[in-house]
Amino acid sequence: MEFSTKDMHVWRMTAAVSWSILFQFMFLCLFIIITTIDVWNFDGFLAPFHSLFSSKCFYIIPLAVVIFFQGIICSRDYLKPPKAHFISQRYLILISLFSYQNMAALFVHILLGFTVSFVYSSLSNDRINSISVRCTSGELNFYDGICLNEKKFFLVLGGIWIGFYTFITDYIFQSRTLNFPPVQQHKFIRMQAAFFSCLKNSTIKAIVPSFLFCMLYYFKGNTPRSYFCSFADFYPPHYLLDTLFTLFDQELMIFLWLFTAMYLLMLDIMVILFNIHLTERAYFPITTYLLPSANKQFLFLQDALAKFDVPIIQHLGFLDLALLSEFDSQRRAELFTLSQPGGHPHSWNAISNECFKVIDKFTEELDKCIGVSQVDEDESYQDFTKPQISDHHCYQHSYRLRNLSVKINRDSESSPATTLQESYERLIKVYQKWLNDKVQAFCKKPVIAYFFGELSEPKIKHLLFQSHPVIWAVESLSFLTCKSLKEDAFGVAQKDLSKTIDSFLHLKNSLDKLQKQSIFIKKSNKLDLVDIQMKNALKFSVKQSIYRIAVYFKDYIKDVNFSSMDVLNQLLNFIDFKEV
Fold first, then answer.
1. How big, in percent rounded to 5, are the helix, strand and coil portions of the chain?
2. N or C: which end of the chain has fewer CB within 10 A?
3. Residue 148 has what DSSP assignment?
4. 119 Rama class: left (phi>0) / alpha (psi -120 to 50) / beta
């Protein structure tokens, strides 16, 4: 199916949000049945089914509205360019916590927690379905009035707390990346495989925030209760939840844990549905001729690979390229076809250039992270000083240039305006150098360097999180190059064989340097495990791709013009299977 960029985003994200709303409707119906059914009474047995077709079914409307806004927040996270997720300094991290999107996400999380607790508690028994109750004679001695139902207030406040807790612990410091499955399966099978694991994790994760909220309410619960009673003009209840005996009520604790688990399950299902729909394979057509951007009705594969500003499209483009390079001989033939008229390999040139661009860009940024940038700065500094040495050399060995320089100096001496301008420029340079030295010395102070210094480890984490296209680009070039021995009648892929091997070996050497760097510290937390997995997957893919080319082209390797003998020597190790 052929897509445009807008259609692909709209349909897939709409489907994810719609399925999430449908899941919540099923959970709501199941909750109504469980809480109202009476197996010992026939009329009570049919009561839940009457409730489903009554006004209770309309409680799904506020949930659907909040889930819709939650879907918008999730879609904006996945639509961001990769650089939008990366922050290299601690003070920028602190500033980013108060960005407009984070504030909107915080509001939606709190609103969703409030809505879940309020809706599900309103559908429960009479003890917690209303925020207010009629004061009894024991609670109000002189006259009847409206008192606060503190159990309902406790559960709703717990929903607000879990929204804030989830935003702080899971959303704001979590890198939201898509997990592409190694084998493409039907959406129903992927959802079925992930649902029960998600249900188990939600019930376990709900224990800690529920316990923390109980402790917080035990020490500070009287403050929000007093403010709410004053605002809503309610009388305080006679039996307050300010003792351990009244607070840790069995029914109250079960409902608090259940609503917290439902909230966490709702968020996890939203993430799973987005991941399932957005990582589904898309087929991009291949064109053998050049078209202006205004005349393109559909998104071609060449254009999808170049979508650096829309990472989802670029990921799907490289996934499609990786799969067709290995399994689809008919679409591979379109890549090896020359344009008519003209006889130019436009398709191969466009796609291979995008693959090389992604690989080389990743390798360059990885080299900078592991310290090569400092060498580049030293070289640039030496280049800056070379012209001064060259002028001095010409002045000593060339009589003609020396006389010319003397004449120029005399002319400059005869011009007071030129001499004043040169003095002013020299003064500016001296002041700039002094200022730069002071700034660098100030930035090297421990406290300043801690908050304003560049963090190398987040850079590497950011690169490894974005390495999916690099893996697919390496595998695609490797398979296409090897398949070209039998399928490429014009040799359009073999002309880039030397460039392909150079690019692969350069990336392999950079990954080897990363392995030796002490900056990449292995820890046991979740993010570092993902980093290690992505690094190992990338390194394995690069080595496997080089081995594949070495095996296919070992009889023709002497006919390839490499950039240096070092490249040939490294490739011979792969041919002899000496590289581990």
1. 75, 0, 25
2. C
3. E
4. alpha
3-class secondary structure, 184 = coil
* 554 and 472 co-located in one domain: yes
Same domain? For 266 and 163 the reply is yes
Q: Does one domain contain both 269 and 301?
A: no
Write the DSSP symbol of residue 235.
Answer: B
Q: Which domain holds residue 366?
A: 293-370+458-575
pLDDT per residue as tens digits for the range 288-347: 555 554 445 567 888 888 888 788 888 899 999 999 998 888 888 888 888 776 677 888
CB 477 within 8 Å of CB 494? no
Q: How many CB atoms lie within 10 A of CB 113?
A: 29
Spatial distance between the Cα atoms of 201 and 284, rounded to a whole number of angstroms: 37
Buried/exposed 359-370: b ≥16 CB within 10 Å, e otherwise: beebbebbbebb
Closest CA to 153 of 80, 234, 86, 87: 234
- Statement to judge: residues 429 and 496 lie in one domain: no
Total of domains in the chain: 3
Give dist(CA 180, CA 469) in Å, integer.
11
Q: How many CB atoms lie within 10 A of CB 257?
A: 17
Same domain, 268 and 358: no
Asked whether the predicted pLDDT for residue 517 surpasses 70, the reply is no
Among 428, 454, 480, the domain-final residue is 454
- Among 329, 335, 201, 318, smallest CA distance to 271 is for 201
Residue 78 domain flag: yes
Helix or strand holding residue 147 (H, E): strand 146-148
What are the pLDDT digits (tens) for 108-144?
Answer: 999 999 999 998 888 887 778 888 888 765 544 444 6
